[in-house]
Amino acid sequence: MSGHARHVLVIEDDAETADQLADCLKSNGYEVDLAADGEDGLRRALAADYVVMTVDRMLPRIDGIEIIRRLREEGILTPALILSALGEVDDRVRGLRAGGDDYLVKPFAFREMLARVDALARRSGTVVKETMLRIGDLEVDLLARIARRGGREIELLPREFRLLAYLARNAGQVVSRTMLLQHVWDLHFDPTTNVIDVYVGRVRRKIDGGQDYPLIHTIRGVGFCLRAPD
Amino acid sequence: MLLTKTVWSSSTLKLAFIYVIAFCAAVFGLLGYVYWSTVTYLYEISDRAVSAERGVLARAYEAGGRDSLVALIDRRLTDPFFVDWFYLLVDPSFDYVAGNLKSWPATLPGHNGWSAVASLNWQSEAAKRSPLRATYRILPDGHHLLLGRDIKDLDRFGENVTIGLGSAAVLFLILAAAAGISTSRRSVARIEAINATSRKIMRSGLGERIPLRGTGDEWDGLAENLNSMLDRIGELVETNRQVSDNVAHDLRTPLTRMRGRLERACNQRLDLNDYRSLVNDTISDLDEILTTFSSLLRISRIEARDRTAAFCNTDLSEIVREVVELFEPAAEEKAVRLQLSAGETVHVVGDRDLLFDAISNLVDNAIKHGGDRGEVKIGVARCADGPVLSISDRGPGIPTNERHHVLRRFYRLERSRNRPGNGLGLSLVAAVANLHDAHIVMDDNSPGLRIELHFPIPQGGMPSMSDQQEQAWAIGVDRP
Asked: Kind of pairing, strands A216-219 and B113-117?
């Protein structure tokens, strides 16, 4: 990718939210361009090469969904994270159908937003189809669907393997409960109970139980992260 | 007064008049044809008799010449049977020879044909002045013969028919107008009753109802439907009011907590750690409020039925298996045994996300309230009246008199008031069930609660009942 590899476009009409978004992204190593309305946003997105953009759903002049639709028509595939106050699944589906890559309902935790931007940024980077992921002494074989820790095979149910594989693909990044529900269970709603935590807890016992160091970490208030110790 | 005004502007009346006009046109057309064909037929009969008489006269002339013809005419004039006939024979210079007319009519041309002749030409003064219908002919020796009949009776018949038709039409118009006005008055009166009730409701609230007449007609049907609609609206408004009260209560509590905390932070000197924990507590309180808000919004949107577009054929057994798999670790933690019996595919037309969410809520409740070391049974079966999902636990259950209430928003049983939760889970289940036309049955599992969701039979009929072998297996959870 070019030198713009860490450049994010934020299209957001509320000045304070835009500043907060920019702050959060900047302190995590992104360069940020702000656009306060749909027209400006569309112009910038067409002109420069961004690694990710966040788009407010309701914008002055040009609606967020419309921006994404026009960009996709022009063949510009910059991953787009839609940020919206309209939370129902129908809106999400509409946004994703227009070419949006992910959807987050306002208000959101900034760490959740960051987790999703990270996930999208990595996707837009060099896409290497790795089939064997290694995190510390954990090996995840995506083809054979086998996980090993320290060379010993770990028995996982199919769903548990999917969960581990998703965490491994996003190793080092924070993954929220809603993201897990979306990518591992293909469900589009926000879990209201701690059931995901308990489920991850069981996978953690299988992966980390009796090992020298833990790999699956709980990030309080946000979700989980699979990472090797520094 | 208002009523009279509205009668005249009523669409029923306009419609009645249009019908009257159309009907009149049809009736006039029909009667006109009858009149025309009857009169024509009568004239034809008369003309045929005249033609026959002309033949008789012609034969008399051929047999005995002019004298024989004059004799026959004179005989006819004295014959009472021929009283309404008339004859005139004139010589080539149109001078009178015989007959009961004075002279050859001036308007009549001197050649063969039919015509109407004015009655002024009658020879006898006593004769009535009536129209005549005549035929005339030039004889071989140059004499002109006129022969005809009085058509006064025919004309009178025609006039009678015209008068009859005319008065019938006038009578018809009056009757139709009266019927139209009375129908309009009736419907306008009923509509006005409905309007009056609507105005009262707009002014003073949903207490008013449209009066019924007890006639069981379509107006009563309409009024009944409108009344039950008003009942339903009333219920919704009442529910809404309760919900707003509850929302206010449920939001005030954490908001008050947060406000107090912030006020304290403002007034007291705290160290950095105190500040950090204060901010964290506030964020988690805010998250709680937001969760409650999203759940409420979600329930309202499901209740607004704007999600049936995403419906498709889904396998209830598959969803239940996935839910059970997701909750297995949570059950394990509480040493609850989840027992699933969902063998074959059971199709339901619905939304997978919503069904998953609703079933999750039920299973979550069963695990939470089912008591430690309990057992939760989850089953999917095809019954004769449609797919049934059942979830039963061994907990304290829900008292019979409270079963109806637990589906309401924010309703919480006394014993679970201090447990985490917002009292919206079962409301969501109820909303999802409603959206899927499923009904909820709550039963005593003695001990415990048994909740069943009865789904309607998917369109296109259920698969055959013969293969209803239920394969039951328990997802074993090792007790710690």
From this structure: unpaired
Contact B360 A195 (CB under 8 A): yes
Spatial separation of the C-alpha atoms in residues A126 and A51, rounded to whole Å: 11
The DSSP secondary-structure symbol of B112 reads S
Of the three residues B251, B284, B303, the one that is the final residue of a domain is B303
Query: Looking at the 3D structure of chain A, how many domains does it have?
Result: 2
Domain limit, last residue, from A96, A124, A152? A124
B214–chain A nearest CA distance, Å: 47
What are the tens digits of pLDDT across the range A44-95? 999 888 999 999 988 888 888 889 999 988 888 889 998 887 666 566 667 7
The domain boundary residue, chosen from A61, A92, A124: A124
Confidence bin at B400 (pLDDT 50/70/90): confident
Task: Give me the half-sphere count of Cα atoms (radius 13 Å) on the Cβ side of residue B439.
Answer: 6
- CA distance, residue B479 to nearest chain A CA (Å): 14
Nearest CB to B364; choose among A93, A187, A193: A193
B294·A188 Cβ contact <8 A: no
Contact list in B for residue A107 (CB cut-off 8 A) is: 290
- Whether this model's pTM surpasses 0.80: no
The residue among B224, B248, B237, B236 whose CA lies nearest residue B434 is: B236
What is the complex's ipTM, to 2 decimals? 0.75
Domain with A41 in it: 7-124
For A198, which of B322, B330, B352 is closest by C-beta distance?
Answer: B330
Q: Are residues B383 and B292 part of one domain?
A: no
Run of H or E residues at B316: helix B316-333
State the CATH number of the domain containing residue B238.
1.10.287.130
Domain boundary among B285, B303, B321: B303
Cβ distance of B326 and A194 shorter than 8 Å: no
Summarised one tens digit per residue, pLDDT across range A1-44 is 444 458 999 999 888 999 999 999 999 889 999 999 889 999 99
Residues of chain A found within 8 Å of residue B297, distances taken between Cβ atoms: 87-88
